Amino acid sequence: NNNNNNNNNDNDNLNQLKQLEIDLKNLIEHGKQLKQQSILLEETTNQIQTQLLIEGLKIPNLAASDVPIGDENQSIIVKYLNQGEKIDQFLKQSTHQLNEQFNQFQYDLFNAGNLKRDHIVIGNNFDLFNFEDGANVAGHAFCYFKNESALLEIALCSWVIQKLIQKGYTPIITPDIAHHSIIEGCGFQPRGQGTQVYSISNTDLCLIGTSEITLAGMQTDKIIASDELPLKYAGYSHCFRAEVSSGTQKRGVYRLHQFTKVELFSFSKPEQSEQILEEMIQIQEEIAIELGLHCRILKMSTQELGAPAFKKYDIETWMPSRNSFGEISSASNCTDYQSRRLNIRYKHSKNQNLFVHTINGTALAVPRIILAILENNLQSDGSIKIPSVLIPFMGGIEQIKSKKK
Fold it and tell me: pLDDT (tens digit, 9 = 90+) per residue, 78-137?
């Protein structure tokens, strides 16, 4: 009997082991199925999160209550510089209303003596630009700057950076490329149809359209000490934009795919950002006035803000070859739009970190400034007068004279 009992126990144990083996195999198989389901769910979640991010990035910043609502025609002219107002009045006059004084003024706007105020014609006469070789080497809307136009670029940048240093801005030469995440965090779209961003193949890097991107990116995922704010930078970089232009914007150096720019940029506490925006606009005014440019300042409407801006001002200067004013600078308060996306905060108190505000403005978009100087400073004897503030940075050159004999 004892033997029978032992045999029965052995059989029971064996059966239990077999059942455990079956159960273990089933559990392993079920685990594999769960793992596969987990992978599929993770992929689906990632796809949803990516799509949510894409859609979320389309949401613009809120606009300030005093921003005009509507398209560019609703933008408000808030100030004129130099003879900007007289030019604007002339442009609004119908032909039959023009008196003799306006007729002479009209002639002087577009001509210097018998010479046409057109930077392409001027560039040919003075051997300043090489569009043909630029197109052969790099494609349409690339250009070689030669002789005094190259000196003008160097002089403009040197002059304005010295000015900004005196006003408390730290000079920085930034990288000309940035990761997609930094560009997206600043409110620009590096992917998709109609993007203005050049992407570098087989990487997540892009050429920057402004050093605003690389300056903002400097503080990504950082917490700034409260007493360090505001931080103010003068960023120098090349800028690359794939935008397509037409008509007068397609001519000459007004809209190039590559150009040099000096950018104003600041990180601030929320209560400081409006004052810094006003400071940047004052600096832009000073630059335009000292260069002798005929300008108007506009408070831009909601449709002209772009995604990041809470408030934006543009400065436009008279460009005879375009028969209109053309934009030379802008200044924007982006509040915490960029800092939330880039996770840039400051130490507000012992237990609280708040998002900084970012403010940016153009100090110099070099080709457009050169365009305006050449066209507006053309003299009746065929020379170009160099703005007095640039002469020390031009090696003492006061005029550009024709090289054609």
Answer: 999 988 888 888 777 755 454 555 566 777 888 888 788 999 999 999 999 999 999 999
Query: Which residue in the list 117, 322, 345, 368 is annotated as catalytic?
Result: 368
Supply 96's token pair: 């039959």
Q: Left if phi > 0, otherwise alpha if psi is -120 to 50, otherwise beta: which for 221? A: left
Task: In whole angstroms, give the CA distance from residue 263 to residue 106.
Answer: 34
Q: Which residue has the tokens 């590096």?
A: 190
State yes or no: is 341 an active-site residue.
Answer: no
Q: Is 82 helix (H, G, I), strand (E, B) or coil?
A: coil
Closest CA to 314 of 127, 146, 79: 79
Instruction: Mark whether 255 is an active-site residue.
Output: yes
pTM, rounded to two decimals? 0.85
CA 160 to chain centre: 18
Cis preceding-peptide flag for 171 (omega within 30 of 0): no
Catalytic residue among 117, 148, 211, 255: 255
Please provide residue 228's backbone torsions phi and psi, each rounded to the nearest 5 degrees: -85, -15
Instruction: Output the six-digit token pair for 346.
Output: 């400051």
Which member of 301, 329, 330, 339 is catalytic?
A: 330
